[in-house]
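Hey,

Quick one before I head out. I ran the complex with adenosine-5'-diphosphate overnight. Inputs first:
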Amino acid sequence: MWPALTILIFLAAIALHFWWRAKLRREQESWRAELARRESRAQSAATETLARQDALFDSMIEGVLVLDDAGRVQFANRAFAQMFGTTGILRGQALLEAVRVHEVTELVERASAAGRVVDHELELPGGGGRWLQVNAAALTSVDRRRLGTILVFHDLTRLKQLERTREEFVANVSHELRTPLSLIKGYTETLLDGAQNDPEVATRFLQSIERNAGRLQLLIEDLLTISQLESGHVALNLQPVALASVTEKVFADFAERGARKEITLRHETGALRAQADEVRLQQILGNLVDNAIKYGRAGGNVIVAARETGSDKIEVSVRDDGPGISAESLSRVFERFYRVDKARSRDAGGTGLGLAIVKHLVQSHGGEVWAASEVGTGTTFSFTLPAAKETPASERQMAH
Ligand code: ADP
């Protein structure tokens, strides 16, 4: 009896042992599977975070470059690659290989020595006039270990161009204002010094003073117009305008000047109507007709013509048979203060701003302006305007 019971207990113990081991193994396997699942979830979360970070950096307009402690590239975003024209993978490259500008290497050294953000403006080599502002900061861990450097590049090219244009403009304006002012001052001093006692000389000087004061006035008016146009504060009163009637008004304004040079003014505008601001259109045509008379041939012709072009546009041209403009100057005549012949323009009472104003006014109507010329034959200035939006007869009747 006892031996049988002992064997039974022994067998039960062995069975329990195997059952227990199998259970343990199953639990271990399930733990292992759970661990693997968690690890892969963590990994894909990390990959997603990295992808999101890359997308974020790539959507920035600033260039970003991260260097490791040894000065090798760890990360560069898309804007950086575009700024420096680099292609392919930069990771692992030395800084100088990636940017090829010594100033940046020096900046990285300064940033790690200073322990704060340092900045620098640099002009990219290659003569393209491209400017960047670079901010560099040392990257450190919580326990103050040096991890590397982060550099942020901001494109300053447009800002620099605007700054240069503004400086040139101020220099030009000062020069233009100074010339008539010093003449006025000179004539006044001479008059006060005794010339006023000679009526003939006095009259001549006073006429010069009046002429130069007039020039100053014109210049200030043109400057105000330019500044209004450039700030976009010009409201256009757009309505159908008959080109023939505007041209005749302009011709009436310039009839005397034309007659003085025996220039014949003619127009071929038919019954065309543009969708325009009448006052502004008169200003555009006035400037072009004024130039055609000023720079045209004595005894010549000035013709204003208009034609319909496809896509609801009207092309207007002002043609003279004067000495013309060379191809080199032609590409610059719409620039502020550009004159082919400075002395001639000043003698003719020009400010050098007329065509810049014309360009702005045409563009604010949604049109384009250009010039064509053949030296010795003449010049044609042309511009486009939207054709008048005709009100259907039925609506016109209803309005009455
Ligand atoms: P300005 O006040 O000097 O006339 P504009 O801007 O009106 O200034 O014209 C710029 C320059 O373009 C003029 O100084 C002149 O040299 C040249 N120009 C303009 N129109 C003509 C033309 N019809 N024929 C020849 N040259 C012209």
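The chain has a mean pLDDT of 90.

Talk tomorrow,
K.
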